[in-house]
Amino acid sequence: MKLSLAIAAIVACAVFFYSCEEDKPVKAESSFGYIQEKILNRSCALSGCHSTSEDWAYAEHKLVLSEGNAYANLVNRDPANTNAKAAGLKRVMPSDPAKSLLFMKLNCDPTLSPNGYGGQMPLGRDPISAGQLEYLRKWIEAGAPEEGMILADVGLLEDNVTMCIEKEFTPLEAPPSGRGYQLAIAPFTIKPNFEREIFVYKEVGNTEDVYINKIEMRMRKNSHHFLVNTFDAKMPKKLLPNIDAIRDLRAGDGTYVGETVSQMEYQLFAIASQTPEMNYEFPEGVALKMPANQKMDVNLHYVNKGSSPIEGECYINILKVDPANVAHEAKAIFFDTEAIYLAPKQKTVVVKDFSFAEPAKIFMLTSHTHKLGEYFDIQIKGGTRNGEVVYSSNSWHHPLIKSYQTPIELNAGEGLRMIVTYNNTTDRAVRFGLKSDDEMAIIFGYYY
Length: 448
Hints:
The chain is mainly beta. The protein folds into three domains: about 30-160, no CATH class; about 170-330, Sandwich (Jelly Rolls); about 330-445, Jelly Rolls. About 15% of the residues lie in helices and about 35% in strands. The chain contains nine helices and 21 strands. The chain has helices spanning about 5-10, 30-45, 60, 70-75, 80-85, 100-105, 110-115, 130-140, 260-265; strands at about 180-190, 195-205, 210-220, 225-230, 245-250, 265-275, 275-280, 285-290, 295-305, 310-320, 330, 330-335, 340, 345-355, 360-370, 375-380, 390-395, 400-410, 415-425, 430, 440-445. Strands 1, 3, 7, 8, 10 and 11 form a six-stranded mixed sheet that branches. It has a five-stranded antiparallel sheet with strand order 5-2-9-4-6. Helix 2 crosses helix 8.
């Protein structure tokens, strides 16, 4: 399964927000009116974010925060995020900031990603100030009234002290001696208003063949994807990168670096994640085989839409298992299509079939599109279960990762069908491509 440019950018779905509406005046003096003016209008109710139901992200978050709509859509309303809803959160829970998803997302809450509640907000922009967050907290504690003034200083909303003073990033502790290996990507800088995608070729350090049954990863926030590849044996030796050297995909002016692009053509997928932390364990008796003296190409894509430089950093632990306990060798699934054309202001459904050349038992599936993807369904193709839907996800930003306790069993010649629904709310045609405003359609997972 050779990694094309599309595959190499599997989760290169960096989101850019350029519009910034001017503040609308408060129609009547009220605490919520000031929150609308100073917080929601400035950081949330922006084109492409939460301004109208026509925003490209609306299909995922189902939340409009424009004036006249925000209060009814927030207070005592269930979130669209299924994990947050199942946990009993509301978008705003009167009197309880800790149960209010809006407050959690604006508060840089560290539990967002581990609990599957989505990312911090505002996405791709500077966080709100400490004073603004404190005023929001006091308003929620006061019962989140729509009218009237709470007992809190409105001047807090003019505070410019940075809210998200990040706790010191803690590197992932290396595996115990003899238990596995660590790949570390040292801190690197992403300049303001820039997306930086790097590759670093690392030696694993295994002197003999090993089997891997668990993968741990931790990286600094603001990364839109983490990907680990190997290289096809057919790759020309002159293209092999130097060990531990950072290779940028784009130069400082945003143009592609030719040599890096050429190397990507020979990459083979191994590991991927869209969250700052990952802890994935293969089913009992199943493991990935890693040949002796393995080298792996780590790919990180960071987006900085703020006004100050940020740092990227990443640690990957690869944990091994006794070969005597391995009954099945895991193999990667990587199915994609580049036949994507999305007419402006239309919904489009892209369908493609894929077959296995050998019998396969699938134990994990997930999907990838960019921001115009509304729904991603996977059906079984062929055999007695032909047409059965085995995977569905309605989130491009946090796609479902589905593990199967009972593997999906397919015979040789049978396979999977992707059915992807896109909603192109823009005024331009959108095609397949690597950039954040292009589109992709990819199935990946593991089988044996």
